[in-house]
Structures are given as structure tokens and as C-alpha cells.
Fold this sequence. Notes:
Residues 49-286 form the Carbohydrate kinase PfkB domain. This is Carbohydrate kinase PfkB domain-containing protein. With 312 residues, the chain is α/β, with parallel strands linked by helices. Helices cover 33% and strands 22% of the residues. It has 9 helices and 13 strands. The chain has helices at residues 45-55, 70-81, 125-133, 150-155, 175-178, 194-204, 246-259, 264-278, 291-311, and strands at 5-10, 15-20, 38-42, 60-66, 85-90, 97-102, 108-112, 135-140, 159-163, 183-187, 209-213, 219-223, 229-231. The protein has a 9-stranded mixed sheet with strand order 5-4-1-8-9-10-11-12-13, sandwiched between helices. A 4-stranded mixed sheet has the order 3-2-6-7. A hairpin with a 5-residue loop joins β11 and β12. α1 (45-55) crosses α7 (246-259) and α8 (264-278) crosses α9. It is globular, with a radius of gyration of 19 Å.
Amino acid sequence: MSSEYDVLVLGGSGVDTIVYVPELPLPYADSYMIRPGIETRAGQTGDFVALGLGSLGLRTHHIDMIGDDPSGDLIRAFHRARDIGFTEVPLPGGTKRAVNLVDPDGRRLSLYDDSRSRDSDRLPEDLVRKLAAASRHAHVSITYPCAFTLPLLREAGLTISTDLHNWDGENPYHEAFAYGADVVFVSTTALTDTERTMRRILERGRAEVVVATAGSEGSYLLTAAGDLVHVPAVTPREPVVDSNGAGDAYACGFLFGRLAGESPERCALYGAVAGAYACTVPATGSDAIGRAALLAEAAAITGSRTAATDAG
């Protein structure tokens, strides 16, 4: 029996206010004149993953808690405009928000409003079970209510992926996600020993593959059956304007390959291509690479690398 959805995305909805700054860190001053301006738009990690997966042709559904407020309206409109199925659950504290400071090189500093979350926040179990029963795979954001969905998703027999973002390898909050997913993404940004952390995830959890993204340095791939593999970064075809969403895009490309039965190395190439494309999209925008472009770019890269190897 075929599933209705290829991927169920849980959590990670929110609204960002983008502020372009002349440099990071931003020196103290009484005021700054900002260009090209300040803009508020829908789109945090779960929203961008749902967008990226849908752009790659995967049947995607998103569930999260959002508020009955103007920020929530932006998220609803985001999903409607892109034909992304969205199940919303009321968030009493209001829709999650953040301010992103973006410098001229596209680097980002995010300030998250932590006042919106409450210990009682939950996604209804019966609703999660219903959507899980209609899905092949679940991508779980590390937002608080999603930790409680992991046993339900495993009970439903789904494979699970998660992105730990800038985990330091020590914060216990992330462990339920790190050790409860089959595919784990993590940034190297805050890790003191990347390989050690990746191996610990494999040893203590259920992961089959762990990916550590390292920005312009590429990414690192580790499976239980192999050694640590470095995957080179892909040079974007357009100028880099913003790194916001690059990690989410990488995860989308990787999952696209995995659900198609590709090798981990091929999945990582797809991730690198999708991540590079995301770096060419302004922080105030929301765009993702399509399936045809991803496959064409990956084929071209494979061909050039093969030619270089043969010539050598």
C-alpha cells in the first residue's frame, strides 16, 4: 500500500525579521541606517525543509503549532502559496519569531524569541499517529513539542531524520533527537571534535548515517560500516548572498537521494548542490532548487570529477 506523503515534516514553523547589518559582530552604536531595509517574512527551519522537499517533487506535509496572530497568518499564507499541506495546532504563546542579522558576506546571527514556548506545548498524539500512518518518512525539527513525537513515529514504522543545527555535542536537550533518528544532520560550528561526536551518535542511537555540514568546507559523512568521508562543497552558480537556509536545503537534497535509494555519497552530493543553491537566495526571499536542476547539476559535477580523475 503506497503512502499519501513521502515526508512528514514536524515542527520548525516561525517568522523571521531580516536585518541587514554592515558587519558581524555588530559594534555598539546609538543607531545604524540600514539598507536594503528590514523585512519580516515567514520561514524557519521546518518551513524551509517543507519548501525544499516539495520543490524536489516529494509529496510533503507539515505539522506544527502556531499562534492565532499576524505572524501565524504569514505562515499560513506561505504554505498556501506554495501548495504545501499544513496542519496547524494552536500555540497559546503565539507564533515563534526570530530576528536574523545578515552581514554583506551572507553570514547570519539569529536571535530567537524564547518567550513563545511553554512546557505544556504538545502536538496531539492522535493527529501525529494519523499523519504518520500516511507517510513514508518523518523529518523532525528540534523544537520542544517534537521530542514527544519520536516514540509515536517509531511506533508507526517510519524512518526519521533530524537536524541538530549548532549542537555543541554536550547539551542534553538534543540527545533525544540525536539518538532517536535514522539520519542525523549537525553543523560543525559548535563542535570541538566533529568525528567523535558523529561516532557517539552512531554508537548510542539508531542512526544509520550522520552528516556534519561545514559551510564552505563542505560536509562530512559517517556510516556505521565506513570511515569518515569528506564531501567537497559545491561552488554556487550565482553570487553568494546569504547562508540562511543552506543547512535545511542540504538536508532536503540528501533526503531526496535517500528516499530514491541512492548511496550516502550520492545523497551528500545532492545535499551539497541544494545547499549551494540556497546560498544564492536573499534572506528576505524563499526559493529552493527543483528536481531537474538538482539532477542536472549533480550529473555535471560527477562528469567533471570523473574526467579529472581519468586525466590524472
